[in-house]
Amino acid sequence: MVRIHPSILSADFVNLERDLERIASADGVHLDVMDAHFVPNLTFGLPMVQRIAEVTSLPIDVHLMIDDPDTWALQYAIDGVDSVTFHAEATRDAVALARELRARGARAAIALKPGTAVDDVLEHLREFDMVLVMTVEPGFGGQSFMPEMMPKLQELRGRADELGIELALQVDGGITADTLPIAAAAGADVFVAGSAVYGHADPAERTHALRLAAAPQPGSLDR
Ligand SMILES: O=C(CO)[C@H](O)[C@H](O)COP(=O)(O)O
Ligand SMILES: [Co+2]
């Protein structure tokens, strides 16, 4: 099943409740937590995630771009948070952290920066509910999609199919109505979009346009 998860990174933080209502037809909302250490940008932390969880009924997908998620990620497994994603590059023991997140009722997800290979994740694929393949360098919205990440998606989807496990494959960075079908064809099924949704006057319409872009076209060989 295709899922569209707008990122509020490009929303109006002063009118956030209004901007959340504008994406009511989405499947989830993606919250980018950045600490100005793991990535060279600073956004928000747990108090903001807690408050958003109080005002939206959308499942929340937290993307932690922070150092030391082994220490901090569990705090984000609160009511309303569907999945917590931590970066492979920042984590000491990804399997242990994923198990702890699951024990707390959150879906566990691991993210890979563009320069990070899939090998370690492939070895432990059953431990994760979702893998996030970054299609930009994490830190900022509005960057260009990296099509060279598609083999990672193909490899992950192939291994998940071999193992017979349900694995969500998320892409984040530069997703538009033009790039989404490329990622979908490579095996992605959860699509994060920040500027493609909130960089336009009508985020509801843009959310709908992304969903249409994800629908298999007649005659295509897409999954
Ligand atoms: O994790 C992120 C950046 O590190 C954001 O989720 C992502 O970049 C969304 O922005 P856009 O769709 O504009 O690329
Ligand atoms: Co993100």
TrEMBL record:
Per the UniProt entry, the Enzyme Commission number(s) are 5.1.3.1
Quick one: which residues bind a divalent metal cation? 30, 32, 63, 172
Q: Does the keyword Nucleus apply?
A: no
**What cellular component terms from Gene Ontology apply here?**
cytoplasm
GO molecular function list: D-ribulose-phosphate 3-epimerase activity; metal ion binding
Which residues constitute the catalytic centre?
A: 32 (proton acceptor), 172 (proton donor)
Which EC class does it fall in? Answer: isomerase
* Residues holding substrate: 7, 63, 139-142, 172-174, 194-195
Q: Which chemical reaction does it catalyze?
A: D-ribulose 5-phosphate = D-xylulose 5-phosphate
Q: What's in the keyword line of the UniProt record? A: Carbohydrate metabolism, Cobalt, Isomerase, Manganese, Metal-binding, Zinc
Known pathway: Carbohydrate degradation
Cofactor, how bound (note) = Binds 1 divalent metal cation per subunit.
Cofactor names: a divalent metal cation; Fe(2+); Mn(2+); Zn(2+)
Q: Establish whether keyword Transferase is in the entry.
A: no
- GO biological process annotations for this chain's record? pentose catabolic process; pentose-phosphate shunt
Function comment: Catalyzes the reversible epimerization of D-ribulose 5-phosphate to D-xylulose 5-phosphate.
Which family is annotated? Belongs to the ribulose-phosphate 3-epimerase family.
The protein's name: Ribulose-phosphate 3-epimerase
